[in-house]
């Protein structure tokens, strides 16, 4: 309840901005900037005018929206597994980053969209190319934060683990990963936002489905209400995914005293 009250001013500001948007667009009468009510009606027709048997969802939802979300989450999950695994290995090594650091810095400096032609040549057109683009662009925040987190294991925990002669598996999953989890989640949050952007970019090239393809198609057809509906959908998806990941993070890191204090301060407890 306290969290809802603390977020109420933000929702009030959002409502005011939408009302101002509605008024300004109707006064301007621009073809390129339709009012929110027209965008909402277009969104309803595009996504929520299907039969009751499919929960009123249209084919566009199943063919474009869900396909894009699956690719985005799939690429993000692959990047998460690879980034955390490599990051922990590199972080716990005394010399690995000395050799791999320059290579990582070089690769992460390459803008992922510029590699789309390369991925088109290496992979088949469609989902493989799109997943490769998402994974390449989102792995670096996870990898570097995992390295930093793996290096930050407290010396006392290290000595205690040695005293109990923990196995490598127990050491990694019982000591290193819990200690590194705050920084790992920080990398996951950054990469989640990047995955949404790269999902759209990857669907702009040679794709016949997805939110990015639908945005480009609407623009070429001068269907600006549909284009704006797609843009707003991306914002809503980003908000929902970030909120969901934050909820998971709060639950997973609830055992940490510093995290409990931060949550209590944020909720006014």
TrEMBL record:
Keywords: Cell membrane, Membrane, Transmembrane, Transmembrane helix, Transport. InterPro entries: MetI-like, MetI-like_sf. Its main location: membrane. Residues 65-245 form the ABC transmembrane type-1 domain. The chain crosses the membrane at residues 73-94, 115-143, 226-245. It is a multi-pass membrane protein. It is found in: Cell membrane. Belongs to the binding-protein-dependent transport system permease family. This is ABC transporter permease. It comes from Allokutzneria multivorans. The lineage of its organism: Bacteria, Bacillati, Actinomycetota, Actinomycetes, Pseudonocardiales.
């Amino acid at each position: 309840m306290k969290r809802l009250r603390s977020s109420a001013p933000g929702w009030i500001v959002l409502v005011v901005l939408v009302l101002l948007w509605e008024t300004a667009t109707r006064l301007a009468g621009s073809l390129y900037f339709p009012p929110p009510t027209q965008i909402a009606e277009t969104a309803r027709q595009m996504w929520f005018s299907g039969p009751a048997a499919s929960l009123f969802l249209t084919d566009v939802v199943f063919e474009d929206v869900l396909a894009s979300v699956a690719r985005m989450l799939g690429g993000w999950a692959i990047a998460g597994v690879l980034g955390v695994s490599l990051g922990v290995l590199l972080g716990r090594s005394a010399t690995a980053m000395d050799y791999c650091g320059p290579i990582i810095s070089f690769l992460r400096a390459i803008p992922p969209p510029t590699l789309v032609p390369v991925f088109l040549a290496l992979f088949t057109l469609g989902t493989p190319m799109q997943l490769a683009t998402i994974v390449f662009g989102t792995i670096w925040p996870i990898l570097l934060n995992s390295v930093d987190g793996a290096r930050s294991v407290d010396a006392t925990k290290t000595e205690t683990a040695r005293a109990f002669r923990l196995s490598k598996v127990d050491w990694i999953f019982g000591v290193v990963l819990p200690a590194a989890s705050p920084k790992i989640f920080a990398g996951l949050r950054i990469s989640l936002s990047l995955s949404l952007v790269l999902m759209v970019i990857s669907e702009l090239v040679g794709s016949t489905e997805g939110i990015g393809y639908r945005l480009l198609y609407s623009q070429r057809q001068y269907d600006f209400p549909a284009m704006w509906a797609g843009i707003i959908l991306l914002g809503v998806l980003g908000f929902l995914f970030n909120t969901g990941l934050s909820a998971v993070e709060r639950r997973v890191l609830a055992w940490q005293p510093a995290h409990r204090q931060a949550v209590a301060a944020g909720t006014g407890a």
